[in-house]
Specification:
Length: 200
Amino acid sequence: MIVYLHGFISSPQSHKATLLHDYLDWLGRGGEWLCPAIPPYPAEAAALLNDFLAPFAGDRLCLVGSSLGGYYALWLAERFGCRAVLVNPAIRPYELLQQYRGEQLNPHTGQRFTLGPQHMQQLRDLDVPAISRPQRYWLLTQTGDEVLDAQQAIAKLAGARQTVIEGGDHAFIGFENYLAAIVAFADGAAADAMGVAASQ
């Protein structure tokens, strides 16, 4: 199962989510893709995602998280012991989103919400000090990201598989070129699960 986690002020209809869904559909594997709508408030997002993923925990699960979705994917991958592909992930969103404190509008959904200091603390509460089992992670990042510092992700994911591309932007130019590799990485999670089952 591949679960896509969209970024801040985005939705399940985001460009990268749609590309991945359409590719899996083309492979005849559309039923292996899920993309929940993530609430704007971190504590609500964490609770929803925890409950949403619990039925799949330990069962061939791979997360694909973009930007803030990458931050959530990191927390969830450590929590559930699954694989994760992190695409231009936010590493310190509690610092980055300070500039978005106050009333916001999600143009994709029309939802209005207000961020305050408590929401920055909620993000801090989800911080992963260090990753375990780096082989479960794949970092896809572009140094031209105008929103996030790619070096933060490179340092955080030290020891993990990393694809660092010079240039690009926060949207991750050329994401469609990595769809097959992402599915193959996710299929590795399925192989891991079968290997564990076979050894028991």
